[in-house]
């Protein structure tokens, strides 16, 4: 169950990272509330996952999911560049996440 919590925490991290762009510096109320709620849910789920997972692995996987998801959504939603180097680096992060998962069981 810890890995499920961690995966969901990572998805909510993507939500708040992308949400920050839409808050317009926390001047737009609805995106700001949704972003703050996503932050809270993400941290709560991370905390639940870390009850049984090693903190180093859990935190690294959480940030990795958030990083990869945010980078991909930045490309698709915000028109950020999708260069070969950028995509290769995203692939390396994914490889690291999978490696940590495999090493932790």
Automatic annotation (TrEMBL):
It comes from Microvirga subterranea. GO terms for biological process: xenobiotic detoxification by transmembrane export across the plasma membrane. Its main location: membrane. PANTHER family: GUANIDINIUM EXPORTER (PTHR30561:SF0), SMR FAMILY PROTON-DEPENDENT DRUG EFFLUX TRANSPORTER SUGE (PTHR30561). The chain crosses the membrane at residues 33-50, 59-78, 84-103. Keywords: Cell membrane, Membrane, Transmembrane, Transmembrane helix, Transport. GO terms for cellular component: plasma membrane. It is a multi-pass membrane protein. It is found in: Cell membrane. Belongs to the drug/metabolite transporter (DMT) superfamily. Small multidrug resistance (SMR) (TC 2.A.7.1) family. Gdx/SugE subfamily. InterPro entries: EmrE-like (IPR037185), Small_drug/metabolite_transptr (IPR000390), Small_multidrug_res (IPR045324). This is Guanidinium exporter. One of its GO terms (molecular function) is transmembrane transporter activity. It comes from the Bacteria.
